[in-house]
Structure formats: C-alpha cells, structure tokens
TrEMBL record:
Residues 1-127 form the DUF4240 domain. It comes from Rhodocytophaga aerolata. InterPro entries: DUF4240. This is DUF4240 domain-containing protein. It comes from the Bacteria.
Amino acid sequence: MNKDKFWKLIEDSILASQGNFDKQVDILKSHLVKLPVEDIVKFDRIFYEYYAQTKISTLWAAADLIEGWCSDDRFDYFRAWVIGQGKAVFDLALDNPDNLADIDSIILARKYSGELLMYAASEAYEEKTGEEDFDELSIEGEESIPYQEITLDWVDETKQAIPSRLKTLLPKLYHRFRKE
C-alpha cells in the first residue's frame, strides 16, 4: 500500500457512494477487506499520517464556522471527513482552509461525521481476520507520526470564537456560514 493506492481507494469510494458519506465508508471497508492484512494496516497508518497534518488552527476555525461551533471531538471527525473528500479537497484544505467555501459538498460536513472513517481499517481488519488485535498492529511505528499542539488564536479566554478574527482569518467561509 502506498499513498497513491490510499487516495485511489478513497476516490473510488467517493464515486461509488454518490455523495453519501456513510455509504462511502461502507464501500471503502468492503474494498479494504479484500486487501492483504499488511495493506489494511498500512492504509490506517497513511490515514493517520494525513490526519496529523490536518491538526491546524485555521482548519479548526473553518470547522467552527461550518459547524456553527466545533468541539475538539467534532474537529477530529471533521478532519477525517476532509480526508474522506479526496486528495484535491485535502490539499485545498491544507493550503488554505478558506477555500473550502468554494466546495459545494462542504455543507455535507454538517450532516456527515467523519468519525466512521477513523475506524474503517480496524473494522475491515476485524471482519477479515475475526481478530480484535488491530490496535496492537497499527500502533507499531505510530510514534513517528508528528502530532503537534496548536494555538487557537481565534478564540477568547472562555474558548468562544471571536467573530472579528474569524472574519479576517477566513472571509469566504465567514460570509457563507455566518450571517450578519
């Protein structure tokens, strides 16, 4: 499993699901089950490498605008949802989260949680093997994934979003999701 194969699996599941994210995850799992166990584990590792890259303050601010409010758990699910939208959306979100305002499907982030995608590989592994030791397999080498702490400079001391900062930071998303 390499990163190109990872994105192909994501893209194929997008096409087959016709815009239903929950269905997309089911389709993805059905494809993963057909792979060798090593590839299922590698898929999970690649997923979490990309997932670590999405832990950025401006993407959290984007999620907050899109969702109307975004807890840390909900941000985790949003980050997974972004990966589940494919490489083009992932790259766009990392380059400048404000560009998510230009994506028609962004409104679906409110409807579908990316949480299910976070467990796709482990569920495929368990279905394929009947074993529940996936966490032990996937954790090998995970310490090399760089998880970083972030500062949310767009919230006040009570952890509430500051509208003026959001408007400056992400003007297109602010205009699309916050009505003044």
